[in-house]
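Subject: Sanity check before I submit

Could someone independently write out the structure tokens for this chain? I want to compare against mine line by line before I put it in a report. The sequence has 496 residues.
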Amino acid sequence: MSSSFEARIVDASPHAASLIEGHRDFGYTLETALADVIDNSISAGATEISLLAETSSDQPWIAVSDDGTGMTEVELIEAMRLGSKSPSDQRSKMDLGRFGLGLKSASFSQCRNLTVTTRKSGVVACASWDLDEVKRRKSWALELHDKAEQFEAFDALPKSGTVVLWRKLDRLMGNTAGNNVQTSQHMNREISAAERHLCLVFHRYLEGPSPKIVLTLNGRRLEPIDPFASKNSACQPDRSEEIILSEGGVRIQSFTLPHHNMMSKQEWDEIGGPEGHLRSQGLYIYREGRLIIAGGWLGLAKQRELTKLCRIRVDIPNTMDSDWKIDVKKASAQLPLAVRTRLKLIVERLVGTSKRTYQSRGRRLVDDERFPIWNRIQSDGDVVFRPNLAHPVFAEFVDQLPSDLRAGFENCIRVVGSGLPIEALHAQMLGDAEAVVPDLADQPQVQQMVSAVVTRLLESGVKHEKVRDIMNSHDFFRKNWTAASKLIDELLEAQT
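---
Independent answer below. Compare away.
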């Protein structure tokens, strides 16, 4: 029996205008679109990539220039073809492409006119996709230009390399079209947000004394953002390990970020990003050193406050695209079963390390040897914080009160404890825990605390030379150390 059936063949080619318009809606943002264009520059062997933006003119534009190998006119036409490469094609390690759609789909997501000018062996070639012309002609009308110098950013074309120019920026201009000031402000905000994304996505290409690429924005060099703070001495990297699969090796390394008290606010905010550390914890998946997934656990764990210091770097080669289901935007992936199983164990271990980093600081706040102002009481799964009435400051004040007022004072302190705004604290801690800070102490408060604690330490037999070290380990005194240190010395000197 024949394995095929008789059939009539008809041409069912897609309508040009409909298909090319559909390529505008793959879900790109400005930042992911720019990253995709830069991928092409890296694949072409570029070492210097310039992002140029003119936002104040009546017809704003954006361009990406690189010093890569450039293209002949034949190669340019092929590069402008939708689906110019098969995802199953074998690729070099420097090839960050996937479907041969990125340049076109990324560009169309932001503009209606894509012009590519390229120079190879001294010969310039130039071609444009204009979506309005495709719609008018109802055909795949790729335009070739003999006078490339007429286009913006032509002066940025190196002796060998390519300039990708976006014009008719309808998507990026949004509802501000016709108002130059609003358009410029809106575009500048979007480009500023995209800048951080590029510094993060390509940070491993930008790092080191001899970076793989130099990336600039309107002449200003962009600096890498290391999501693991690996150069900070308080970062806790785990050992690296590799999982060997049929299509290559997957390298995994976990990191516990430094506690925010061990970093400057600028550093902490930078690696946390606009959504903060709660959202940015989790897996960081790299394809040939290019970041494609930045945070999230992909079902391996929940995003919680105590695990927000956890980050795991996963490196995969471009030979595993199918196994990982890398999408067109190179912004999503799925874990193969073997990798998921191994990562599950690593996540469990790493989560424990992150919790200890936070909880060790929490325990210090309620350590009996440090005279805690609050006692942590755990019962039936609940945790209650109560003011410590045995604290030297409270105890000293109670001793000075008439006996008929002591019970009332202790009740007032207990009311303060029972009135903790738990719901408000939960909401704030979930959104931005680092913004929750203790109230500043004034000079009388510091003086009262120093007097009470120094007296208690000396009464308990602590030697004079140890008092300063013990008190400097207490958060209250350390944060007010300039004032507290002088008072401690005065008290100790008076009692020698």
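---
OP: Matches mine. For the report I'm noting this point. The longest helix spans residues 337-365.
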